[in-house]
Amino acid sequence: MADYDEQQEKRPAQEQSRQPGIEAEMDPRPVSVPPDYRGSGKLADRVALITGGDSGIGRGVAFLYAKEGADVAIVYLDEHEDAEETKRGVEAEGRRSLAIAGDVGDESFCRRAVERTVAELGKLDVLVNHAGEQHPQDEFEAITRLSSSAPSGPTSSRCST
Q: Which end of the chain is more exposed for a tag (fewer CB within 10 A), N or C?
């Protein structure tokens, strides 16, 4: 535990004024996939659509799916630089990739994203519905109030309907 605490103390504070944040602006940059990870074909010839796939956990999922043999479409709000970096990483694994910008709170956009994925990648096998934002709160109860008062918008996803 001491190593973790020491690591956290050395890490510079990360704060951005917008949601979702821009991973390209982080210092140090997050590690999405361990460099020695080798895929074994678990997702060979599958096609995945990952909302929130431009950065963070979504980027890690996109990279791992590509390493396992999947073609990957990512949906993101407007973090174009992050999305292009993720797309390049998927393609570096020899897989096809799409980066689709839009708001997952808009059901018609979600339908178009699925249609584009199928049109350009041939099918859709896996949906990873991961889009979201982070709003740190001092009290647990504040999280509940925020969650229940936001029925729609960029933080709620309709891509699963």
A: N
